[in-house]
Amino acid sequence: MRSLLPVFPGLVADRAGRAVVVTTVLLALTVPLFLRDGSAYAAGLSDGLSVGGTQGTTLAANLVALGMALAAAWMSDGVVSGLRRDGIAPLVLTRPVPRSGLFLARWLAGFTALAAVGLTIATTLNGVWRGFGGAGYPLSAAGAIGAAAVIWIWVGSAVLLFSSALERGEGLAGGLLFVLPISLAAILPPDTVLARVAGWLPSQTVLTTSRDLLAGRAAQAHALLAVLIPGCLTLALGVFVACRREWRTTG
Amino acid sequence: MIELHGVTRRYRRGARDRVTALSSLDLRVERGATLAVVGPNGAGKSTLFGIIAGLVRPDHGRVLIDGEPALRWVRTHGIGLLPDRIRLPERHTIHESLRRLAILDGCAGGEVGARVGSALEMTGLSAQAKTRCGSLSHGLRQRVGIAQLLLRPRAVILLDEPLSGLDPLWRARFREILALLRDASPGLTVLLSSHELNEAARLVDQVAVIREGRLADCFALHEDVADFERRVLSSLDPSRGS
């Protein structure tokens, strides 16, 4: 692992271009929302963030979550399977590098890039909100940044593992885990059976909890459990599938 | 020493169709040998190299390097591989690519620059060091592939069609580089595949002929090139006679 440390910054830098694109797009989508609600709060016209408060903003929040999931999937770009897809695996895997170290280094590099994106977005949004709304935001600055970043990183790291597990996996991994259920919930009228089923899926629970946290409402215990339990199971399954695939196909 | 015992590898082609790339192949390559692996397209040469390099897992059989399972040996010592169709990170420059590979090779921080510089110089790529790999011609990629073999001394090198894409000048230069590598690493074992028998005959001291995934012939190269060609061709097509 020590031998991989010098290449680690390079591995992170490989994802920098995508990270900038993702950050820009997501900020472009969310900053107007925070500006509007912050200004309204400052003018005494609202009680705080209205994410999820109306049909329009619910749809916007769903689309942002959809964008986050897609972006995380796009950024993840495989762990070791990406090496094979790019055709550079023969040059890397024939060098005296432990497979586990390589896997860990590449996953950590992806994770670091995702964390940087998550923290940048959370910090900017918090700054926008505080700049326009000031006091009255129920979460502390650190709490708001942390809540948003943790949710993003959770989504991103799970997708990262699954994209390693799938041969051409970015969009497919994101789709399987998050995009489809969120899309269903966003598009279908809330009283349909499919929308209600989608509401029970982990991705939708993540979305609901993140909206609660961003809106300054304490997430309910059962909702947190519903996020944590499937989350841990998803991560464990992701690790298992990814490792199995990487080790099986690279010897 | 590299030993293959009863190595079989099949690939799936379509839903039901399976192709046998190697079938119960036995081969023994002594330490320090330079062996040409020749055979028609699809004979299993690249699969053989992939298996020795630990990139392809055989369905049956064992591969040993110095008495150790090949995969474990490769992970410990590393192996030099020039793939058939070399691909490099498109956005990286030649220098960046080689630098990273040198680090993965375990070169200490201080010597990375010197090793990369030396490899670039030996392969005539110093002037193109800042060129992005995505814009390189096949011949230049091949030279980068040769350069990455020079980043550290190796005990085993596998060269899959090393001469393809090289102009006559660089073919001659490649022979010189191979000689330098042999001098720098006593006991270096080299396996190379080539369709160009004349060129191969100038580089190797042994020949293994593979036909339909099996070892059709294996011999030391003492005779002149014309006899060598005759023997390879009759191994590949017994109806030609000897």
In percent, how much strand structure appears in the residues of chain A?
under 5%
Low-confidence stretches of chain B: none
Q: Which superfamily, in CATH terms, is the homologous superfamily of the largest domain in chain B?
A: P-loop containing nucleotide triphosphate hydrolases
- Rg of chain B, Cα atoms, Å: 18 Å
**Count of all domains of chain B:** 2
Taken together, the total number of domains of chain A comes to 1
Structural shape of chain B: globular
Pattern of helices and strands of chain B: EEEHEEHEHHHEHEHEEH
Q: What's the CATH topology name of the largest domain in chain B?
A: Rossmann fold
Using only C-alpha atoms, the radius of gyration of chain A works out to 19 Å
Query: What is the N-to-C succession of helices and strands of chain A?
Result: HHHHHHHHHHH
**What's the total count of β strands of chain B?**
10
- Average pLDDT for all residues of chain A: 66
The largest sheet of chain A, given as strand count, sense and whether it forms a barrel, is: none
Overall geometry of chain A comes to: elongated
Q: Which helices and strands appear, and what pairs or packs with what?
A:
The complex is a heterodimer of chains A (about 250) and B (about 240).
Chain A: H1 8-14, H2 16-42, H3 55-76, H4 81-86, H5 89-93, H6 99-133, H7 141-165, H8 169-187, H9 193-199, H10 202-214, H11 221-249
Helix pairs in contact in A: 1-6, 2-3, 2-6, 3-7, 3-8, 6-7, 7-8, 7-10, 7-11, 8-9, 8-10, 10-11
Chain B: E1 2-13, E2 17-29, E3 34-38, H1 45-52, E4 60-65, E5 68-69, H2 70-77, E6 80-82, H3 94-104, H4 109-122, H5 138-149, E7 156-160, H6 168-184, E8 189-193, H7 197-203, E9 206-211, E10 214-220, H8 225-236
Please provide a written account of the structure.
The complex is a heterodimer of chains A (251) and B (242). Chain A has helices at residues 8-14, 16-42, 55-76, 81-86, 89-93, 99-133, 141-165, 169-187, 193-199, 202-214, 221-249. Chain A is mostly helical. Chain A has one domain (2-244). In chain A, helix 6 (99-133) packs antiparallel against helix 7 (141-165). The longest helix of chain A has 35 residues, at 99-133. In chain A, 40% of the residues are buried. The mean pLDDT of chain A is 66. Chain B folds into two domains: 1-79 and 154-166 and 184-242, 3-Layer(aba) Sandwich (Rossmann fold); 86-153, no CATH class. Chain B has helices at 45-52, 70-77, 94-104, 109-122, 138-149, 168-184, 197-203, 225-236; strands at residues 2-13, 17-29, 34-38, 60-65, 68-69, 80-82, 156-160, 189-193, 206-211, 214-220. In chain B, 42% of the residues are buried. The interface between A and B is medium-sized, with 23 and 32 residues.
